[in-house]
Amino acid sequence: MADLASLDISFTLNGAPQTHSVAPFALLIDFLRDDLALKGTKRSCDVQVCGACTVLVDGLPVSSCTSLAADIDGKSVVTIEGLAEHGKLSPVQQAFVDHAAMQCGFCTPGMVLATTALLERHPHPTEQEIRHYLRGNICRCTGYIKILEAVKSLV
Amino acid sequence: MRLAPFQLHRPTELHAALALRAQFGDDSAYYAGGTELLLALKARVLRYEHLIDLKRIVGFDRLARDGNDLVIGPLVTHLRLATDPLIRESLPAYARLSDNVGNIRVRASGTLAGNLCFSEPHADPPALLCLLGASVTVHGPNGERSVPMAEFILGPFTTARADDEILTAIRIPLPTAGEQFCYRSFGHLEYPAVGVAAAYQSQAGAPRYRVWIGCIGDNPIHAEPVEAALAGVPPQALSDVLPQAAEAMAAELPATDDIYGSADYKRHLAAVFIGRAVLESAGMPGGR
Q: Which segments constitute the 2Fe-2S ferredoxin-type domain (chain A) (predicted)?
């Protein structure tokens, strides 16, 4: 029987192919933050309610706090570190800056990634569709209006 | 919170998954979307030495029409059900329900099959699936069997599925022409405090209404007194009968005080949403 103590996983991380060995019970958030030193992914509620730990897996938002690292095998993962290209912020990041759509900033990586996923699939969402999609990303500074304005500026 | 160690098995066909369950017994559990199971493992409410991942089983992602049924495989996520053209066209009320489950991340990872197997009493799907006459197919060591949805949910976190069985399909009969459905739920937390599924059909001028109430009891409740009170009432005349029928039904519901609200509050919500769901199913204003 094969050694099941660790699993080899191959995936694309922010555009770059990677192969790593992970424990089958390792959570994606710990793998990203601790093994790959990608600290932009934030742990907050830890029960997939708040969205701070959002990463994109094959383009869809995922709570990395409640996902196995083993499950990104064969998939494409994008973290907040992967959005800027050659030092230039992505359009979503730039819109958040331009609209000052952050206060403490802790929810911002998840907000930006969820917005990126929304606009990838629905480039012209209505305000109601934006609110619905981002309902699961919580800003405890309650700075939602600026965030909404930033997203609307991209539509 | 981290997970206690386990081994992860990734079979690619059903019988291999059943064989792994037979080998490891109660030290093992099936795993798919993980939105319920991983939370329970992190909270140390559950503990398994082995997880049997179903995500690589060929055909488990099926979402198709089979004769007069819609067949939903165990890997079909809420997001797929919310966006798939087949569901949006043939069962728009179900697509809408799916679009309101949890949040976008839960919908993208979580499966309907897992939602049903976990049997969280405040989950949205069971009431509407009961109304639609859905059934689930489970496969175990002794073969497969079909269980009507109304008999599948036995209570909080308890279903008719044996621990060694795999839910391999949810079958929903396609609605007959002219039957209209609606599902409305409401609450302040991630799960709703109350959910109401309603159907309206006009058969040869004899209006017929069907109503199921979810989230408020241990399992979906068939609101037969409401149906009896409304039988034959044209949609335009519902306002004469519906409020009293909804309030009488709500008063009898087994609501209890919990974090979703007081029993009185939940009964009030039930009366309001029975009314709105029935009106909306019949295409009447006041349903919004």
A: 7-83
Q: pLDDT (tens digit, 9 = 90+) per residue, A31-90? A: 999 999 999 999 999 999 999 999 999 999 999 999 999 999 999 999 999 999 999 999
Burial class (CB in 10 A: 0-12, 13-18, 19+), B176: exposed
Mutate to test the interface with B, among A6, A8, A25 (most CBs of B within 10 A): A25
CB-CB: which of B34, B51, B190 is closest to A67? B34
Query: What are chain A's domains?
Result: 7-81 (3.10.20.30), 91-153 (1.10.150.120)
Q: What is residue A97's predicted lDDT score, i.e. its pLDDT?
A: 98
DSSP B52: E
Torsion of CA B238, B243, B245, B249, to 10 degrees: 140
Asked whether the predicted pLDDT for residue A155 surpasses 80, the reply is yes
Strand pairing report for A76-78 and A7-13 = parallel
Question: Does A25 sit within 8 Å of B109, measured CB to CB?
Answer: no
> What ipTM, to 2 d.p.?
0.96
Does B188 contact A at CB distance below 8 Å?
A: no
Q: Give the distance from residue B132's alpha carbon to the nearest chain A alpha carbon, in angstroms.
A: 26
Q: Report the percentage of chain B scoring pLDDT > 70.
A: 99
Q: CA nearest B211: which of B124, B268, B273? A: B273
State the Cα–Cα distance between residues B272 and B249, nearest whole angstrom.
Answer: 11
- CA A84 to chain B, closest CA, distance in angstroms equals 23
How far B76 CA lies from chain A's nearest CA (Å)? 15
